[in-house]
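Hi support team,

I submitted a single chain yesterday and got back a structure, but I'm not sure I'm reading the token output correctly. Could someone confirm the output below corresponds to the sequence I sent? I've pasted both exactly as they appear in my results page.

Thanks,
R.
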Amino acid sequence: MFAKIAGTGSALPERVVDNFEIARNVDTSDEWIQSRTGVRTRHIAGEETAVSLAIDASKEAIKDAGISPEEIDLVIVSTVSAEQLLPCLACEVQAAVGADNAAAFDVNAACTGFITAYQIAVGQMKAGLAKTALIIGTECLSNIVDWTDRGTCILFGDGAGAAVLKADTTCETEILPMVLHADGRKGGVLTCGSGTGNGKSAYGRYVQMDGKEIYRFAVKEVPMVIKELLSLSGWEAGDVDYFVLHQANRRIIEAIAKRLHLDESRFPMNMMDNGNMSSASIPVLLDSMNKKGMLKPGTRLIIAGFGAGLTWGGTCLTW
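Hi R., thanks for writing in. Yes, this is the structure output for that exact sequence:
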């Protein structure tokens, strides 16, 4: 038995904030931001919330999968920016979409969160505990950004992406390799706790990041995890159609492609229009690729993420 993504969906806030608007509030410019991050615009929540975005993305994914909500056995939401602690977002999504037969819980693995949720769901399927799962990455990072901190406020955006995952009990193919790693000793390079930042967040917590250290971490560990997945799968790099990475920064993805000696065209990107959406970035990108017709039966992907914790990991996936 192995699992396949049967449907995808995404939701982005209506409000779009470009670099020129950011530059009116902090000492920066459109050229400076684009040259260092690749980001031109990002979506920022107004009336939307992490919950409402997750619900909208989930409904779209369920429709795309052609299933009824009652078929869903499991709902997993990855987020670091929920507006409330209780109830968990997954339970709110479960109620809103009518997945009455599903278990539901949240995970927090930051930008590696969607990959973590995917692997948990596949594990549940392999154990015979679920046949259909709804996995979601949703973020309203604007809730936890210090908008006076040039080092972080230029990077992040809000949004949600979802996927319906179905077990294929008719196929004897082994589950493709999946890996997760963590190094809590380096957790201090990317944090968000209750603090005394200069911003005016109503949530009392702010993202703080050592950007140079995150860059060094990502361009070292992501190529290594991709090589690990290739070794475990028996695939060659040329067998992979696309490398779908967490959309943190264009420079990081360019450096990863260069280290792997691969053409950048095989590394799709959307951070230019959406910014870094943490756990939402990979599922939103997958949905965009799906809608563009880039993902067809048999398309081979390696999906890899990295983020706070520090955490990183990846998955081989055949569409």
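A quick pointer for reading it: Residues 42 and 274 are 4 Å apart (CA to CA). Let us know if anything else looks off.

Best,
Support desk
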